Amino acid sequence: MILELFSYSFITRAFIVGALVSLCASLLGVSLVLKRYSMIGDGLSHVSFGAMSVAAAMNLAPLAVSVPVVLVAAFLLLRLSENSRIKGDAAIALISSSALAIGVIVTSLTTGLNTDVCNYMFGSVLAMTKSDVVLSVVLCVTVIFVFILFYNKIFAVTFDENFSRATGVRAGLYNTVIAMLTAVTIVLGMRIMGALLISSLVIFPALSAMRVCRRFKTVVVCAAVLSLVCFFAGMVASYVFETPVGASVVVMDLIVFGVFFLAGRRR
């Protein structure tokens, strides 16, 4: 069955990109959850949906348009929540709902809410082209490299941002790095998971790993492994039961979270 599954080129492309995106999302998810900023993934996914909808209406490459737009949105979101009276979840809701509304209006006035738009909302393994795969692999490898390169600084600003500033760490810069990496990951994962489900890749593996692990490094490693396993299991379940890939992956993440939650309580 596994050989038959990967005999289809579009499934192979989806698995390569999905595995890399799952790995990136799980690495960043630990910091985002600990900083109580996990819903940034949901907000940026709505911005990405708006950008992709506009790109589809204008016959432009969706990834080429949405990546820079979401990067700008992540930067603005970070600055908005830090330097104004609009904080945290309110800033996320403000930007995400506005982008989603703009995307829906532009689409309804041009191409209409067609199959491509539904794929952006709920994900589709058929959405990945060869050019998308190449761009996604390059960007995912870049995200992983930057995360490893600045791992110590990300660890510092995650646990105690004020102390990090006192010791000379440029906390604002590394918060921006986390936001930029998250933005890229969200855009890449939307083609498979969809705007409504992509944030699960950020939240679930981190929460599951935190049930049984206590050190930051072990939580990150555990979350990465769980994310890869759940994505693979979700792909297989989607093929066997003919269910959407994004929803299947989320259900696998939910099952694993339940198991780890019970294991953590027993410990």
Write structural notes for this entry:
With 267 residues, this protein is mainly alpha-helical. 82% of the residues lie in helices and 0% in strands. The protein has 13 helices and no strands. The chain has helices spanning 2-5, 9-34, 40-57, 62-83, 88-109, 115-122, 130-149, 151-159, 161-166, 171-193, 199-212, 216-241, 245-266. Helix 2 (9-34) packs across helix 11, helix 2 runs antiparallel to helix 12 and helix 3 (40-57) runs antiparallel to helix 6 (115-122). The protein starts with a helix and ends with a helix.
The secondary structure category is: mainly alpha
The DSSP helix count reads: 13
Q: Which strand-content bin applies to the residues?
A: under 5%
Mean pLDDT over the full residue set = 84
Based on CA inertia axes, which overall geometry fits? globular
Beta strands, count: 0
What does the secondary structure layout of this molecule look like, with pairings?
Blueprint: H1 2-5, H2 9-34, H3 40-57, H4 62-83, H5 88-109, H6 115-122, H7 130-149, H8 151-159, H9 161-166, H10 171-193, H11 199-212, H12 216-241, H13 245-266
Descriptive labels:
82% helix; 267 residues; mainly alpha
Question: What is the gist of this entry?
Answer:
With 267 residues, the chain is mainly α.
